[in-house]
Amino acid sequence: MCGDEDIIRKFMLSAYDNGMTSGDFVFISLTLLPSERVKTPWVRHDVRDDDAMRAYQPLLEVPADQLICETQNRSFSEYIYTVAEKVSHYEIKRRT
Hints:
Helices cover 42% and strands 10% of the residues. By secondary structure, the chain is α+β, with helices and mostly antiparallel strands. A two-stranded parallel sheet has the order 1-2.
């Protein structure tokens, strides 16, 4: 998915509210510009900050500038598998 920080947060909170952030799903967000809240993009200083923090755990944020540089010699899907495995700390079965 791709959108501004508020849209991503709203989407992830909706996924959290619907029980979709417990590990069965991985969400991928393409970030086009550096975020002002790089370390804590879920924080809005409201009552949902704790829920948002948990909702962001299965979110894999891929910076566009890194994607362009690192995928020149391999496919996008292979790049996503590799990064997801690093983040999740387990091997992901690849489709053939």
